[in-house]
Structures are given as C-alpha cells and as structure tokens.
Amino acid sequence: xxxxxxxxxxxxxxxxxVFSQNRDLRFDTKTAMYAANEEWLTFACEVPEGMVExxxxxxxxxxxxxxxxxxxxxxxxxxxxxxxxxxxxxxHAEEDEGMPWTKGMMTPMKQRKFMxxxxxxxxxxxxxxxxxxxxxxxxxxxxxxxxxxxEFSSGQPTFVNDPDLEDFGTLRxxxxxxxxxxxxxxxxxxxxxxxxxxxxxxxxxxVSKGVTYIGTGAHDGAHGxxxxxxxxxxxxxxxxxxxxxxxxxxxxxxxxxxxxxxxxMKGAVYFPHKYExxxxxxxxxxMMNMMxxxxxxxxxxxxKVTDKTSDLFxxxxxxxxxxxxxxxxxxxxxxxxDALFGDPKxxxxxxxxxEINKSLKNSSKTVFPKEDPHKLSKGMTVVNFKNLMGxxxxxxxxxxxxxxxxxxxQGKRITTVNAGMAIIALSNVYHRLHDVDMVKNGAKKxxxxxxxxxxxxxxSDGSIANSYDVSGKADNxxxxxxxxxxxxxxxxxxxxxxxxxxxxxxxxxxxxxMQNELWHEGSGVFRSYVGATSSKFDGMNYGSTIGALRELxxxxxxxxxxxxxxxxxxxxFNVANKAGLQIAEINMTGEMIPTKKQAxxxxxxxxxxxxxxxxxxxAMQKKMMDSDQDGVPKPKFVKGTKKGAAPVTAGSxxxxxx
Length: 658
What we know:
The chain is α+β, with helices and mostly antiparallel strands. The protein has 19 helices and 27 strands. The strands form twelve sheets. Strands 1-27-26 form a three-stranded antiparallel sheet. It has a three-stranded antiparallel sheet with strand order 11-10-12. A three-stranded antiparallel sheet has the order 15-20-21. Helix 18 packs antiparallel against helix 19 (614-625). The longest helix has 22 residues, at 222-243.
C-alpha cells in the first residue's frame, strides 16, 4: 500500500502548486489579532444595553475563525516566550513561603512546579480532570501544549511535522521563520482576544453532583480549563508590563512602574514600539532537560528595547485589552466571572481525592486571587491612559499624535487608523472603568476631541485622508479603505457614547463614499484604495471593514440594516474564504477530520478509483481537502506547503478589482 499512498500525496502537492493563491502566508500577530477581535465582536454584536441580533449568515464562522487565531498562537505555535519563565511565576517561586513549589531545586524548576500546580487547579475546578474525550483524555491539557505569554511579532504558520490535531506538539510553526522581535500593539490586541474568549467561556458556570465547576457546560470541563489558561496568560502579560517591561526614558532602562504614583510629566515610563529578547544558552537548556526530558522551553536571558518610540496604536491596543481585563475581574458586578477570583491557596495536585472534593465544594476556593488581578488591570490601564494623555495628546489642536520619542518628543502627525483605534480604546475605558470617574470622564473628553478633529477634516464627498498634521493638513496619498473604516469605527464609538447625530451622519457619509468609490461589484469587496485594480487585504483593513459595517448596522436599527448586513456577509466570505485570508479550518467550521485509520482507508479507496473513474477520483480528492467545499481547506492540505499550516489569518491576500 505504500506506493499508492505516496503517489496520492504527490498528486496533492502538485495540485497545491497549480492552484496556489496570490497570498502571503506569514502570520502578523498585531494585525491578525486585531482581525480576530473584530470577528468575535461581530459574532457577539454587543452594545452596553445587551446584544443585537444582525442575522448574519456567516456569524458562526467569524466566531470560530477568531478562536482559531488565538488558540493556535497561544497554545500550539511556539511563537513567543513560554509562560513558565514569566516574572509572576518567578515571584511565586521565590515568595510563596511554605508552599511545595518553593522547596529545593533551581528557580526555573520551582517555576515549573508552580505551573504544574496551577494546571492541576484548573483541571479540578473546571472538571477537566474527570474528562475522557479525544482532546483531554481524562488528563486535562492536550499533550504538547506550549503556552506563550509574550508573543513574537510574526512567523510562518507552517508545520514542520505531520500534524495531529490531538497532539499540540506536532502543531509547532516553523521557528526558523520567526521574527522574534516583540511589539506592544501585538500584546494589547492578543490580550483583548484572550479576555473576550475567556468571557465567552465563563459567562456562566455549571453544576454537577452538587459541585459548581467553572466554565460553561459545553464540552464539559474543556471551556473552564482553557478559559483559566487564557486568563493566566493575560495576567502574566499584564504583570510583566508592570514589573519588568516598562521603559524609563530618563534612565534608559527597563523595569517596573508604580501606577499609583506615575506621572508622565515628571518623566515618561512607557512601552516602546519594539523589543528584542535573547535566550539563555544550550547549557541552561541541557540542565533543565535533565530534570524534564525534552520539555524545557527556551528561557529568556535579557529583554532590550530596539525602537524607543511610543506608538499610538501600541498604547491604544494596550488600553483596549487592559480595560477589558478590568471588566472581567470586577468584583462589584455580579456575574459568572466571580467564581474565578477568591482564595487560590489550595493545592489540588498534592491533596487526596477527598480533600480535593471538599475544596471544590467550597465556593471561596478559586483559581485566581480576588484583588490582585483587578488592581493590576486597573493600574496598567491608568498608566497607559496617562501616556495617551501626557505623551500623545496635542492640547492646542485637540488631537492625538502618532508618536512620542524621548529625544524628539511629541510628533506632528496623526494617522487616521491610529486615531480610530485610540477612540475605540477610549470608549472601552469609558464603559469598562465605570467606577473610576476621573479616568472615565477623561476618556470621554479625549475621544470626543479626537472624533471632532476627524470630523473637521472629512471631505464633502464623505472621505477622510490617510493622515494629517496637527493643523489638519492632509497627506496626498490615495484614500484607503482602512482609513475610511477606522474613521467610521471612531465616529460610531463617539456616537454610541454621546448620542450626537453629527457622528452618525459622518459615518453614513463615509459609508456612502465607500459605496461610490471603493465597492467593486465583480469581486464583491471594497477596493483597498481609490482606483485600485489589484487590492491587498490584511488583518487590519479586513478587520476594520467588518467592524465598521457591524457598528453602522447596529446604529441604523432593524428596519434599515438589511443592505449593510448583506454586504458585510459578502465581504467577509469573499476575503476570508474565497480569497484565502483564512488559511485553513477544522471541524468546528465544517471540516471532517478523519482518524489516521480513516485517512488511510480513504487514500486506498482514492487510488483504486483513480484507475476506474479519474473524474470521480478528482471530486473525491477535493472533498477530502475541503469537506464543506467553502474554499478553506483542512490544515494538512494548505496550498503551497509541505506539511500544511495552522488555521489562522494569512499575512495578506490580493484580489483583482480591475
């Protein structure tokens, strides 16, 4: 049977080359995570009063594509710094007096022991320890998971091993392609996605045999376990920002920041645009591998800043994610998240089954402390809010600016994309920091000022330029889709808070410009810029377009949104599925993933059929590669790859809009 199977794979590879798409597979963390956030928000359609039902045909696909992005990056890819090495884990390893993980061994091993205890807690409190399903197998986490808390900037999401979806160790991305620089914008967008996904998992909890388990009832304990891991990654990221990754402009060193006393006017402490990390040498890894064979991750040696610029999109992204984290950890709001925060000082791994069961029935015994995450998320939201106001806001002209640098100080230009992202983040601060009046009211004033600045620049045809200097002078570039849609996102966020009709009218005018000058009927997408005969789409302009159309549909009301929701659906499908911005998909969005035996049987059947009925064999082959025939293949059959690629957002796709 070996020869026919080999020839079948050869046929697949030939097919992949022949039908390769005009696509850059490279995964860009910042833009992909931004797109994932807009996809999730389009599925949820949240407003402060509740949820709006838009009736989108592809709403479920948006939800799952969003989750594929984060799940593969955070737990499978290996594209980042492993959480076991985080400063928060080090703090617990050194300071938790009397706890099992603080005894003996070198510090990295103590940190690993602490991580294993937390994993045991997550399993017990979610009920995942009792599971027996294809993923959890009664043990909890899938084998080979590699949780990262500081994500790298980019990398090829292509596999280097034959992928087995039940073994995360086989789903690592090609590390030779990784850009190991790190960017706060990517961290902030990922943080937002982590909290949105965790919120989905913990909006309610389940009761079984008198025990309340954390996480929704779907998939038994899988949701509770994964959600706990997501919050742990978010918590470690936020703590690292506070304790070790803040850059002091006066000293030129990385360190901590005190949110209670920080004042940017007395010296900027901020998160620069680009970091690099170096790792300890092979001797350290060899020593660790002696204690945990084959499982030692790369251990950070030093972080350094390679671009000192404070970038507006970066700061806004951090504010967006951190303010959402504040909401999830808020003890003043009664919700399903309360079951996560309380007294985490019970150790499931080293206790008897009866002791564990007793702890499970005690609702005060949880997986995270009650106060620390809330104070941390509030403090770090405030630090970055202060930097928006102190470093980036030009008071004389009522606008934020793109950059601040310790040498050249405040920049003179504002990009429309950055202005829109800042308004989105500030509106989240307004809604989420509901009990911090000074920050809430300050966020409203700043976002209204920025929305008004953009409003003054809007052309009579409804368009907005790509950037302006602080006096309002526009650049000369061709007006882009991403600028129109980020301006719409900003105006609609301002409208939602102020209810001022001028902001809704501005968004409607911008949409009219998009219809007249950017919509391309033949391809069913908006051109990427005015007059484009070939349009490139990445996570940024794809995500902002989905977000802008969603928010305008919500603002219009049920009787007037049919046209725009249909266009949103069409744009999504044509960019994500048809053009291939979504690289691959798995069973949740329509793929039938066979077992190894089923795959072997299908291949043998295929080889026989090729001899009898080549046309039917080709149809069967296409069905094997793409079960639901929606244009998005199984990970193993991604065109142009040897072993396949992860089901995540591509770097870009190009569509003819001639």
